[in-house]
Amino acid sequence: MPAIVHTAAKQTVDIGPFTLECGDTLPQVEIAVETAGTLNAAKDNVILVCHALTGDAHAVGDEEQPGWWDGLIGPGRFVDTSRYFVVTMNTLGGCHGSTGPASISPDTGKPYGGDFPLVTIRDMVRAQRRCLDRLGLGELHTVIGGSMGGMMVLEWAVMYPGHVKKVVPIATAAALTSVAVGYNEAARHAIQSDPGFQGGHYYPGPGPVNGLAVARMIGMITYRTEALFEKKFSRRLQEGTNSDIPSLDSLFQVGSYLRYQGEKLVHRFDANSYLRLLKAMDTHDLARGRGSLEAALSRVKAEVLTVGIREDLLFPYRQQEELHRELVAAGKSSRLIGIHSDYGHDAFLVEYSDWGPQLQQFLEE
Ligand SMILES: CC(=O)SCCNC(=O)CCNC(=O)[C@H](O)C(C)(C)COP(=O)(O)OP(=O)(O)OC[C@H]1O[C@@H](n2cnc3c(N)ncnc32)[C@H](O)[C@@H]1OP(=O)(O)O
Ligand SMILES: N[C@@H](CCO)C(=O)O
């Protein structure tokens, strides 16, 4: 069993062969894990953080690199690492240290590429559970995460009700709306129609970089809001563009920004993982195989604090309201916070003042 290091630490945990919901077995699975804080003697202060689509295990910063949730988690912050032992894993199927399409298949000695199977949200959660077992961490104080991470949070509450005391699903839902699935289809099509895609067998080449950039551009529009774009860019043209005569080359600031965001993602994300994680979100439904959402939620034992962003275009606030309503109807302990933010969906990664204090209180009660 791997040793647990009880301060900020990174490790890769071998969880062995792993059979997915689709029936395929990955012969060897590794999960990249980062921890922050100290595990107490009773082992009852563990908070599991589940990342969103392009996140990774580095939620909490260290001397080398800031973490993507530093505004929320750290010593003396809303999730206080001087009290809690925070564990974050790169998801199975991802591209930041855990087994995914770019990993070498033990069967062929080559990267899986296009042969890597679909990993569902439930597979991701089962892999997390097995990883925690390997680390000797059976019980969770809280599971928290946003967007795709929030889907995992809800699955934790349903799949392992006896193992988690509290859950905090943020900017998420029991299943994506048809519009969100539509955006994801357009993003996948951009990647798969790029000549660099080659059916997913593009390693060690750069792969479908243009398609991935376009996919991110589409995504970014859904992660923000009209109000934010109006404030930041309005209809201004990018510097150097002739504003007097309309031209095919006219570049708006918003266009330049989206292109930049697309290029930025290409340097830190693998297209094969992007395709699979989008599909995992599309195909996810908390009710699948459980009769109904009501039946699924009837299994929940954890206290639930749902956080929604009222301006979220991707996971509309009505979805978090519905989740809360269903939980209450099922007699569960459920609270809902609806914040306002021009950031829209991405607010959970950038704005904490409206919900951080309530989260802190929820954790400490
Ligand atoms: C911190 C990390 O690296 S995260 C790594 C792991 N990834 C994740 O966890 C995923 C979640 N994170 C995210 O989605 C994002 O990082 C967010 C939401 C937290 C913040 O997004 P950001 O891209 O940092 O912020 P924002 O949308 O304001 O964009 C700012 C960038 O756009 C650039 N920009 C702004 N206007 C324009 C324009 N008109 N034309 C071109 N570029 C522009 C800025 O110069 C800035 O560039 P920089 O990132 O090189 O500094
Ligand atoms: N900005 C988030 C959006 C998806 O929730 C990410 O890239 O993971």
Automatic annotation (TrEMBL):
Domain AB hydrolase-1: from-to ranges: 45-351
Places the protein is found: Cytoplasm
GO biological process, one term: homoserine metabolic process
Pathway note: Amino-acid biosynthesis; L-methionine biosynthesis via de novo pathway; O-acetyl-L-homoserine from L-homoserine: step 1/1
Top EC group: transferase
EC number, as in UniProt: 2.3.1.31
Pfam family, one: Abhydrolase_1
UniProt GO MF annotations: homoserine O-acetyltransferase activity
Catalytic activity of the protein: L-homoserine + acetyl-CoA = O-acetyl-L-homoserine + CoA
GO CC aspect terms: cytoplasm
Annotated family: Belongs to the AB hydrolase superfamily. MetX family.
Quaternary structure and partners: Homodimer.
UniProt function note: Transfers an acetyl group from acetyl-CoA to L-homoserine, forming acetyl-L-homoserine.
NCBIfam families: homoserO_Ac_trn, PRK00175.1
Protein name from the UniProt record: Homoserine O-acetyltransferase
Organism name: Marinithermofilum abyssi
